[in-house]
Design a protein that fits this description.
The chain is mainly alpha-helical. It has 2 domains: 17-220, Growth Hormone, Chain: A (Up-down Bundle), CATH 1.20.1250.20; 223-423, Up-down Bundle (Growth Hormone, Chain: A). Helix content is 76%, strand content 0%. The protein has 17 helices and no strands. It has helices at residues 18-25, 28-45, 51-58, 63-78, 81-91, 93-113, 117-151, 157-182, 187-208, 224-229, 232-249, 254-263, 267-292, 297-318, 329-357, 363-390, 397-412. Helix 4 packs parallel to helix 7 (117-151) and helix 13 (267-292) packs across helix 15. The longest helix is centred in the N-terminal third of the chain and has 35 residues, at 117-151.
Length: 423
Amino acid sequence: MQVLKIYAPAHSGTPRSSRERTWRRLSPLLRLLVLTQLVFNVGFFAVLPFLAGHLGTALGMAGWMVGFVLGLRTFSQQGLFMVGGWLVDRHGVRPLVLTGCAARIAGFVWLGYAERTWAVIGAVLLIGFAAALFSPAVESEVARQAVLWEEEGHGPRTRVLALFSAAGQAGTFVGPLLGGLLLAVDFRAACLAGAGVFVLVLAGHAWLMPQHIPGRARIREPGGLRVMVRNRRFLALCCAYGSYLLAYNQLYLILPDEVERVAGSQVPLSWLFALSSLLVVFTQLPVTRWAGNRLDLRRSMTVGLLLIAAGFAVVAAARPAAWTGAAGLPPTAGFVILLTLGQMLVVPAARAWVPDLAEDGRLGLYTGALSSVSGLIVLIGSSATGSLLDLRLPAAVPWLILAAVPVLAVALLPRRPEPAGGA
C-alpha cells in the first residue's frame, strides 16, 4: 500500500499519556477525521435523545408512530451504509462528506420546523440518509489511514481506531448536555444548534479536506457486491460484530426494564449511560495499548465478546435474588462496565480487521456493509429479544440467552488474521 507523505514524524520525548502520544503522531488528515467524529456526535446527540419526547408530547403522536419514526431513522442510516460506502469508492471521500453534511443541515432545520407527520418523516429520513453518506466515507478513510500509520511504524492500527472511538464517545457524552441546555428554549433551538454544528463541519472540510487523497483510487467497475457476498471471512466478521451490536442495544431495551424494577424509576439509567461514556473517553486508549501488546485482532475480539457475555451473566446470577434499591444496582453497573470494556476491545479490532478482508479499492463498500449487515442482525435480534421478554420466562433466562449470543459469536470469528492486522 502506498505510503502518504502527509504523515507527521513521530515526536520525541515522553508525552504524559498514550492519548497524547497517539494524537501527536497522527497526520493532519487523521486529526481532521478524528475531530470530525467528535463534532458529528455532538451535533447529532444534541437532538436525537429528545426526539421521542418531542414527537409524543409537543406533536401528540401516538406511541406506535413515535416508534415507527425512530425505526425509519435507523433504517435510513444503518440500512443504507452499504450504499454510502459504494458511493465513496466511486466518488471519493470529500464529495460524500460535504454532501452528507449539507443533507444533515437541511434535515435538522426541517425537523425543527416540522409539525405534520409527513414533514417529520421526511426530515428524519433525510437526517438518517445524511449519515449513510458521510459516516462510511469517514470511517473507511480512518481505517485506511490507520493501516498506513501502522506501516509507518508508529504502532498498531487499533490505537488510531481507538482514538476515533473515544472521540465519538466524547461527542455522545457532550451532545445531550448541549441539547438539554437548549431545550430550556425549545426543541427547535436544539435542532438549529445541531444544524449549526454541521455547518462548521461542512466549512472545515470544504477548507481542509484534500480534493483527492493520495493512494485512494476510485473504482468505477461493477462486481464488488458479488465478490463481497462470497467473502466468507468478512461475512463471519459481520455476524460476530452484529452480536456485539445486539448486546450493546440491550442498553436501550432490557437494561431500562431492569433499572425500573430495581430502583422504581429510570433515573439511575442516565448515570449508567454516563458511566459507559466516561469509561470509553478515559480508558479506551490504555485498554487498546494493553491489548495491542498482547493480542492479535481475533483474540482481542474474543476477549471483548467474552467480557460482554460475562456482563449478562452477572445480572443473570443476581436476578433470582430479586434485590431492589441500592442492593440491586451493582449488578446493573457491573453489566454496563463489562459491556463497555468488551466494546473497547471489539470495536477497534473489528474496524482494523476490515481492510485486511476487503477487496482492493472497495474499502468503502466493506466498511458500509459491516454496519448494514450488523444493523440487520440487530433488527432481527432485537425483535426476538422483545418476544423473549414477553414469554414470562424465569427472570434469569433472558439474560442467560443473551449471554450465550456473544459466546457463540466467538466461534464465527475468522481464523488466521493477517499478520499486518495484528493489534
